[in-house]
């Protein structure tokens, strides 16, 4: 059995606690501090992943916008070529009579 030591509690009263309990309390406090540090690291990592995810999402949105605009340009060009081809075909079948 270890001798009791005096511990001052928040209300300024001296309470006798065995050294084993003090040691256990100190070990638990150290574990709490370690867990707090790990928690902070996890929060930082989560924020970093969130920012990276948002950045990747923005990049894909930009790429999709560029592809969509390119598709519209190609569609318009195809329509124009098709229209000119039809006009040429109609013009080629037309006969002119000069009076």
TrEMBL record:
Superkingdom, natural source: Eukaryota
Alphabetical list of InterPro entries matching this protein: C10orf67-like, DUF4724
UniProtKB keywords: Coiled coil
Coiled coil residues, start to end: 25-52
DUF4724 domain: residues covered: 78-99
Name of the protein this chain belongs to: Uncharacterized protein C10orf67, mitochondrial-like
Organism: Hipposideros armiger
């Amino acid at each position: 059995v270890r001798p009791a030591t005096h511990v001052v509690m928040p209300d300024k009263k001296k309470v006798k606690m065995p050294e084993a309990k003090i040691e256990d309390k100190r070990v638990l406090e150290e574990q709490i501090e370690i867990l707090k540090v790990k928690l902070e690291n996890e929060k930082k990592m989560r924020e970093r992943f969130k920012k990276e995810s948002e950045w990747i999402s923005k990049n894909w949105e930009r790429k999709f916008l560029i592809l969509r605009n390119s598709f519209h340009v190609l569609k318009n060009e195809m329509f124009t070529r098709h229209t000119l081809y039809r006009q040429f075909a109609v013009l080629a079948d037309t006969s002119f009579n000069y009076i």
